[in-house]
Write a structure and sequence with these properties.
The protein is of the alpha/beta class. The protein is 37% helix and 18% strand. Helix 1 packs parallel to helix 5.
Length: 554
């Protein structure tokens, strides 16, 4: 906040109704490190002021309809970083309008001099504010790099910002044996190391260098003050590798950079940094993508089918009315889309989950069951084994005229569904109303950059969960590059993949999307172990593309 701005703040009439400002720490980069208090503040904000890099972390938690003025700064309304004075002015103007403002900064607000200046401006004008701490970059990145800052003897720890440190600071850290955590830039690491040596540290003192910390682009190198420049040069680390974030250098005999092989929990995840294509909508892929992230992957959802209403809705209308009037003993859901179709029809008629009273409900798998629970319906039957129509039939009770007053099952499905479930239920004595609840059509092609990444080897793996996803993905986007790992949910899907000229690398041990992700993680872990055993640098599949093709794709 500039003095001019602060002075104008004092000049405001004392009776002006002011808003409230929350200075919020967004942490070092991993969205999962946001605190619960931060998420709560974002959900109540009228205005969010955050630089583009921070906005990526906090934006998903922002209340719908909230203003984001900083994201409109720049040409063509494209997000671009604004100076601290710009951000401070936006905060003050919104607060003067009586708005609840969130000013989000990287790391922790207490470590941000510009945030402190804005707090003082708020205090001078009588605007109430609060501080929601975040994990400081220096601390969070070191933890994710597997570099503890203290040992059992409690070594001193000093934090230095190389961009603002003066001669006195370097002299103090150079003459001590404290662990030093330095925030710097990638192109200044060598100069920082040389400065510490010139100030008294020995060239053989170990250090670690971490770029893009806590993100899936994180990379860490171990070296010494005397060798770090050569190490980074040999690794061909480019300045852009830092992702616009501070590079964290940890220096010290007792900071345990040497223990990184045992403690590097984040970068050693089996699919760390892998870009995995999931041919499903975000809604359908939610739990699968979450599991992939837990393995360190970066999932990208690309829908290969679109869902449309049936051409003639009368059959669905009659079935829903029959559901309410007691025509059915059971209703069986074989997909999340079926749940959505019935739910939409209920809303059309002004019904809710209470209409299921007295009706037994079956779900083909866990994802479908979760969609039902979100609707307010808890399934009575789930497959105890394979999550498929065959697995559901294994547990489905045969019709018993003594215990079942009604012999009819309502089965809302897609227009292209197989007959396995219908035939099995009829064989067990049930009458089945097999109703087309929705139609599936091939989705529109994804954006050009996604298509280029699929065909050019930009993805490390693709998960195929059905034969139709294979056919549709190839149809709308082209065949995945031969360096891409192909993972299939079962033999039928693998057969279709091979028919389209794809090499199948991974197969799920059972037809479950979650087991498919687990199998891919095991495959990634084996690749990593083999590379380490051979003394090679661990690379993702997409990093093994021929250099000529990679350059053309960029």
């Amino acid at each position: 906040m500039s003095p001019t701005t602060a002075h104008s703040a004092h000049a405001q009439p004392s009776g002006t109704a002011h808003g409230h400002v929350t200075f919020l720490g967004a942490g070092p980069g991993d969205p999962g490190l946001l605190t619960l208090r931060a998420v709560e503040a974002l959900s109540r904000a009228d205005v969010l002021v955050a630089d583009p890099r921070v906005f990526e972390v906090v934006g998903p938690h922002l209340r719908a309809g909230a203003e984001t003025p900083l994201q409109a700064v720049g040409d063509d309304s494209s997000p671009s970083a604004a100076g601290p004075d710009d951000a401070g002015d936006l905060v003050m103007r919104a607060a003067r309008r009586g708005k609840r403002v969130v000013r989000a900064v990287a790391g922790d607000p207490g470590m941000d001099a510009d945030a402190t200046a804005d707090m003082l401006a708020c205090a001078a004008e009588g605007i109430t504010f609060e501080v929601v701490p975040g994990i400081a970059e220096a601390v969070g990145v070191a933890a994710y790099a597997g570099v503890p800052l203290r040992d059992a003897e409690g070594a001193d720890v000093r934090f230095v910002d190389a961009r603002t440190a003066d001669e006195r600071t370097w002299t103090e850290v150079g003459s001590s044996d404290a662990t030093v955590v330095v925030s710097t830039t990638l192109d200044s690491v060598g100069a920082t190391a040389a400065r510490m040596v010139a100030s008294g540290r020995k060239p053989d003192v170990p250090l670690s260098v971490t770029v893009a910390g806590t993100t899936t682009r994180q990379r860490t190198w171990s070296a010494t003050l005397g060798t770090v420049e050569r190490t980074l040069k040999a690794a061909k680390v480019l300045p852009a590798a830092d992702g616009g974030r501070s590079v964290i250098v940890v220096v010290g005999e007792r900071s345990a950079p040497a223990q990184r092989e045992q403690l590097a929990w984040f970068e050693s995840k089996p699919l760390f940094g892998w870009k995995v294509l999931v041919p499903r909508t975000k809604e359908q892929a939610a739990s699968l993508s979450e599991q992939l992230r837990s393995y360190g992957a970066v999932p990208s959802e690309v829908p290969t089918i679109a869902v449309e209403p049936p051409r003639t809705p009368q059959q669905m209308d009659r079935a829903v009315k029959g559901l309410v009037t007691g025509r059915y003993e059971w209703i069986a859901f074989t997909s999340v889309n079926a749940v959505r179709a019935v739910r939409e029809k209920f809303e059309e008629y002004g019904l809710d989950a209470r209409a299921f009273a007295g009706i037994k409900v079956a779900a083909v798998g866990e994802q479908t069951a979760r969609a039902l629970i979100d609707f307010g319906v808890r399934p009575d039957l789930l497959p105890s084994g394979e999550q498929s129509a065959a697995g559901l039939l294994e547990d489905w009770p045969p019709y018993d005229p003594v215990f079942d007053p009604i012999d009819r099952v309502f089965l809302p499905r897609a227009d292209i569904a197989t007959e396995t479930l219908v035939a099995g239920l009829i064989e067990m004595g049930w009458e089945v109303d097999d109703v087309t609840a929705y139609r599936t059509v091939r989705a529109s092609p994804p954006p050009a950059p996604t298509r280029e990444a699929i065909k050019g080897g930009g993805f490390d793996a693709v998960l195929f969960t059905s034969s139709s996803t294979v056919r549709n993905l190839v149809g709308i986007a082209g065949k995945p590059h031969n360096v891409t790992v192909i993972a299939c949910i079962g033999p039928a899907t693998a057969k279709t993949a091979r028919e389209h000229g794809l090499r199948v690398d991974v197969m799920a041990p059972e037809p479950s999307a979650l087991r498919l992700a687990e199998a891919l993680a095991e495959f990634g872990a084996q690749r990593r172990a083999l590379a380490i055993e051979a003394g090679e640098v661990v690379k993702r599949p997409s990093e093994k593309r021929p250099q000529r093709r990679r350059a053309r794709a960029q």
